[in-house]
Every structure is written in C-alpha cells, then in structure tokens.
C-alpha cells in the first residue's frame, strides 16, 4: 500500500497494488507575505502545467504570483516548488483509492494503478471510510487470488467488472479508462464482459441498450 498527498505521486501510487492519493478540489492559497523571500517565483510559474500562475505584485510592491482559478487543475505541482502556495484544505480534500499497479519483473510488464474509488471523505485522523474500502479489497483478494498473484494480475484474470463486484465497490461510467493510449485497460473494447452492474451503468449513461 502506497500513499501520496497529491497527483505528483511521490509515493509511487501509479505502480502500487493499493494506493491512497490525496485529491484536492480547491486552488492553492497564496501567502503573499513570504512569497518573494521564500520562493523562486519564475520556478513557481513554470511549474504549473496549465499556465494558471502568473507574476503579480502586492499593494506595497512586493513580488508575488496570482492564480487563474478556472485554469487550476489542483495538481499541487506549484506547492512542490514553493511552500508559500499551500494546497491542503480539510473540507475540500478527499482520498482517492487506486489499485492494480506494479513494477515490471521477469514474468510480466509494469501495470499502472487504476482509480477504483474516486473520492472518499477526508475524515482525519482515523479515516474510517478509507480503511473500510482497503479492507474490502484485501479480503476479496486474499480469498480469491492465486499464490504469488498481484492484485492487478488477479483483477485482470477475473475481469475488472468482477473485481468491483467481489470488493463490493460501486462501479460507475466515470471509472472507465477512456484515455486514447490505454485502450487495453478496463476492457474498453467490444470484448467487454458486461455483468448486471455494468449493464445498469451503460443504461444510466445512455449507452448500449
């Protein structure tokens, strides 16, 4: 089980059996008082992948930055460059659960972790909802997986649809991996093995009748 506080994935959540990822939903808060003395402003601006950060000045003439909120994707990359733009927010933050990732070995290639629960409440300090979800995954895996089989290998063997059913995790159309370069994941082909739960999702999304 790996953990990371943002999408920059310092904790290798992209290639772990189970991963807990901090999911931010609000733009960073700028500490204008210390921005110029604490951070390299050009580096902060360059760190933003969407170009949401630009240079600015405070009322008393100090150098700082401003954020175009509608362009912010809440990735936290600016915070990794500068501690004066904290992103954490107790009420707005959630925990995303990912599963099925692994690094390569002599038998099989690497696998990227997949989002299985988009957002769980950030109920510090015990995180009961997160613990319950992880427990479901581990118990289902322990009861059904073969010896030495990783979670991702197990999920692909039984089918990701069955993975959600066995782990008692709700499946929605938002969990389908439709990234164009990842057509081999989540069965986004005509070979998709529809279960009753998958049919319900398809109907709700206006898909195949």
Helix content: 25-40%
CATH topology label of the largest domain: Sulfite Reductase Hemoprotein, domain 1
- For the secondary structure, the number of strands is 6
Rg on CA atoms, Å: 20 Å
CATH superfamily of the largest domain: Sulfite Reductase Hemoprotein, domain 1
CATH architectural designation of the largest domain = 2-Layer Sandwich
Spatial ordering of strands, largest sheet: 1-2-5-6
- Give the CA-CA distance, first to last residue: 38 Å
| Mean of all residue-level pLDDT scores | 84
CATH class of the largest domain: Alpha Beta
Estimated structural class = alpha+beta
Low-pLDDT runs = 180-192
**Number of helical runs?**
7
| Major beta sheet summary | 4 strands, mixed
H-E string? EEHHEEHEEHHHH
Shape field: elongated
Number of domains: 2
Beta-strand portion reads 15-25%
């Amino acid at each position: 089980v790996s953990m990371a506080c943002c999408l920059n994935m310092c904790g290798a959540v992209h290639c772990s059996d189970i991963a807990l990822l901090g999911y931010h939903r609000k733009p960073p808060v700028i500490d204008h008082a210390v921005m110029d003395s604490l951070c390299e402003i050009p580096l902060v601006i360059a760190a933003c992948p969407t170009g949401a950060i630009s240079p600015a000045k405070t009322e008393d003439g100090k150098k700082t930055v401003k954020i175009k909120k509608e362009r912010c994707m809440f990735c936290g990359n600016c915070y990794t460059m500068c501690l004066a733009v904290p992103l954490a927010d107790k009420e707005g933050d959630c925990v995303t659960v990912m599963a099925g990732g692994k690094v390569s070995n002599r038998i099989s290639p690497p696998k990227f972790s997949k989002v299985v629960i988009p957002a769980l409440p950030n109920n510090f300090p015990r995180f009961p909802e997160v613990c319950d979800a992880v427990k479901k995954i581990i118990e289902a895996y322990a009861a059904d997986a073969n010896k030495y089989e990783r979670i991702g290998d197990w999920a692909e063997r039984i089918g990701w649809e069955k993975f959600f059913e066995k782990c008692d995790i709700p499946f929605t159309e938002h969990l389908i991996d439709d990234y164009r370069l990842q057509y081999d994941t989540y069965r986004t082909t005509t070979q998709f093995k529809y279960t009753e739960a998958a049919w319900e999702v398809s109907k709700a999304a206006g898909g195949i009748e």
